[in-house]
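Appendix B, example 12.
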Amino acid sequence: MDLMAVSLDGSTAATNDSIRKGGNFLREVDSVTALMEEKKRRGAAYPYVNFVFTAMKRNISELPGMVALAKRTGVPEVKVVYLTVFDASLAGESLLDMQDTVRDSFALASELAAAEGIKLKLPEIQGEGEAGGMPHKPCAFAWRDFYIGSDCFVRPCQSSSEKLLGLKDYGSPLEAWNSAEMIKMRATVNSEERMPSGCLNCYHSSCANWNLKSSFVQYGKTFAPEWMPVDTGEAVSEGLQAVVAEAKKT
């Protein structure tokens, strides 16, 4: 394992556990601390561990506390992603048009991170990104990553419900990787006129254009398990068998 991303949405148990229903902040912090201590004991470089913090109105003030938590637990990095709202019930948590609040929290966290030697990865401030009015920033996922859903359909990325191809229609994941569908994806993903429809409303933390309202608020988006077909047993079985068979060759 190269990377382990630990999702915590607050630097206190009260905030994190109110957002992540069923979560246990104290248990998770203890587990991460134990992991980092074991890594140090073994002199191991991997897995690289970071905290991923979904920033919203309820928790943005705790971002500096996340940096302090990283220092305390031995985690070297805090990555911040904005909450994208897909349901009207969460509209009040969006940081859309709250640039001053975001800027203040980012500044405090950045100052602490510099002092403590913690890497802090921040998204752009709304309206200050370099992507202008483009649907998304340049995307490299089609050349780097292969997203296979639990239904064994390949999708443009983890943030899209759009199906590119069915894994069961190919002899191996490698064959699917080099398929006409993937070649087309690579040719169109960064073209505003030709990109897949889901990419027009990109909200992926690495590629979203945070100048756009649609990166913060999207209603009516379809997610798993809503896109999961009713009868998937055979397809999933065949697809997973192909993945396992290919993995055994390496």
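The beta strands are 3-7, 48-55, 77-82, 119-121, 147-148, 153-155, 165-166. The mean pLDDT is 90.
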